[in-house]
Amino acid sequence: MRTQAKLGLFLLLSPLLLWLTLLILIPHVDMLLVSLRERIGVGQYQTSLANYFTFFSEPLYLRTFVRTAVMSIMATAITLLIAFPVSYYIAKMARGRVRSALFLLCLVPFWVSELVRTFGWMILLRETGVISKLLQYLNLTDGPVELLYNDAAIMVGLVYTSMLFMVVPLVTTLESLPDEVIEAGYDLGGNGLSVLREIVIPHAMPGIVSGCIVVFMLSLGNYLTPTMLGGKDSLWFTELIYSQFIVRFNWELGAAFGFMLLILSSTIVWGMLKLTGQSLEKTMG
Amino acid sequence: MIPSIPQSRFLTASYTAYIALFFIFLALPLVVVAVFAFNDSQFPSLPWEGFTWNWFFGAERPMIGVFNERPILRSIGTSAFVAVFVSILSVGVGLSNAFLFNRYRFPGQGVLYVLMLLPLVIPGIVLGISILVASSRAAEGLWDLAQWDVDALRPGLTLVILGQFSFVATISTLVIAARLQKFDQTLEEAALNLGANRLTAVRTVTLPYLMPAMIGAFVVAFLMSFENFNTTLMLVGSDAPLTIAMFDRLKEGSTPLLNAVSLLLMLVSSGLALIMIFAQRRT
Question: Which domains does chain B possess?
Answer without folding.
Answer: 1-68+253-267 (no CATH), 73-251 (1.10.3720.10)
